[in-house]
Amino acid sequence: MNKSILNIEIQNFIDKNINSDITSILLKGAAFPSVKTKEVIEQIEAKKRCKKKLPIWFKTENIYYPNKLNIEQTSSEITAKYKSEIIDGKTIVDLTGGFGVDCFYFSKRFKRVEHCEINKGLSKIVAYNYKQLEVKNITAINTDGIEYLKTAQTKYAWIYVDPSRRHDTKGKVFFLKDCLPNVPEHIDMLFKHSKNIMIKTSPLLDISVGIGELKHVKAIHVVAVNNEVKELLWILENDFSGSISMQTVNLKKNSQEHFSFVYDDEKDANSAYSLPLSYLYEPNSAILKSGGFHTVSLQLKVFKLHSHSHLYTSKTLVDFPGRRFKIKGIIPYNKKEIKKLSITKANITTRNFPVTVEQIRKKLKIKDGGDLYLFFTTDMNEQKVIVVATKI
Q: Over the Cα atoms of the chain, what is R_g?
C-alpha cells in the first residue's frame, strides 16, 4: 500500500482521468516521483469500476483501491445491503472478507464485526478505508478465516463466508468442496462457533448439488440485480431439519420483486395449462434460477403455456415478479403468416423453441427494438406459435 497515492495532486489526477484512455496515460506516464504510473492506472481502473457498483466508496474522498480484480470479485452495494437486511445480531465474523463491502453493511446491523482477510495488503487497505468511511465497529484481521476460528474461543451470532472457486469449470456444474475454503469439510467446526451460517456462492452452483453438500440448510436466497442473477445465499441453522425455504428477489433501483416457495413443494406441484389468453408473463431470472416453475402458476393463479416454456398467461392482469405483456395476437410459426403483419422491427424472445433469435431475425428480416414484442414458443398443444404483445 503506497500511501503517496493519497497525495492531493495524485488524487486529483485520478479523478480527472477516470474516463481517460488508459493506454495513452501509460504511454505518457503519470510523472509523479513517489508513485509508479502502473500504480496510478490501477487506482483509476479500480475506482472507475466502483462508480455504479460501489457508489459510497466512489464518492468518499481518499479511498485506496486494490487491483480491479478485487473490485470485480466483491459484492455490489445493492447485494451487500440485501444480505444485511435478512440477518442481524450482536456479532458476526466474515471469514473471507475481501474488499469489505459486505462487512460495511453488516456493521449497520451488528454491534461488532470481524473481517478476516488472508491477503496482507488487502487487509491493510480495508482497515484504512473503514477509517475513511467512519466505520468504528469493524475489526480487520489479517488471517486465514478458517484457521482463525480453529483456535478461537469466541461464539458469534452469525458466520459469513464467500468461498472462491479454485478451478475454472467453464460453465459446468461445480462443487463447494472444490472451493476455498472448503465449507462442507469444515461445517461441523463452524457450527461450534455459531448457530447460524450464511454462505455466498456463484449462481453457477446447481441448487440441488449445493443442498446435497451442505447440512441443515434452512433457506436459499436467489439474488438478482436488474434481472441478472448475481449470487446465491445459503442460510444454515445448526440442527435444522425442516423444509427449505426458497426466497427469490430481483433488486431494482427503486423496487424489489419477491417470490418465495418451499423447495420440496415444487417437486409435487402441477401447473394449470392454457393457450395464450389476454396477458403474458415472463418470470424474472431469480425465479428461473430457483426452478419454482409450477409454484409460480399455483401461487399467482396463472396458466403455463407449456411444461418447458416457462411463460404464463391469464385473462385478467395480475401482479407478477417479472415482465408483463398485453397480448395483441397469436399466429402460427409460418413465414407467410408473419409476412402479413409487415413487422420490420421488434423485440424477439424464444422459449422452448427450436430456432435461435439470430436465425429468426435473419430469416424474417426483423430488426431489434421498438415497442412490439414477439415470443416464439411452443403451446400446450405442441404447436409452434408466435405471441405478439406489448409491454405493460
A: 25
> Do 194 and 153 contact (CB within 8 A), yes or no?
no
Q: Give the whole-angstrom CA distance, residue 239 versus residue 30.
A: 58
Left if phi > 0, otherwise alpha if psi is -120 to 50, otherwise beta: which for 134?
left
pLDDT in tens, 344-364: 999 999 999 999 999 999 989
Cis bond before residue 181 (omega within 30° of 0): yes
Q: Name residue 247's beta-bridge partners.
A: 221, 260
The owner of cell 497525495 is 7
pLDDT band for 172, please (50, 70, 90 cuts): low
pLDDT tens across 40-80, in order? 999 999 999 999 999 999 999 999 999 888 999 899 999 99
| Residue 210 confidence class, pLDDT cut points 50, 70, 90 | very high
Q: Closest by alpha carbon to 106, among 118, 91, 128?
A: 91
Q: What backbone phi and psi angles, to 5 degrees, belong to 308?
A: -110, 5
pTM for the model stands at 0.92
Spatial CB neighbours of 115, under 8 Å, sequence gap ≥ 6: 94, 97, 100, 103, 123, 126, 138, 139, 140, 141
**Do 270 and 294 contact (CB within 8 A), yes or no?**
yes
CB 51 within 8 A of CB 58: yes
Grid cell digits, residue 145: 478465516
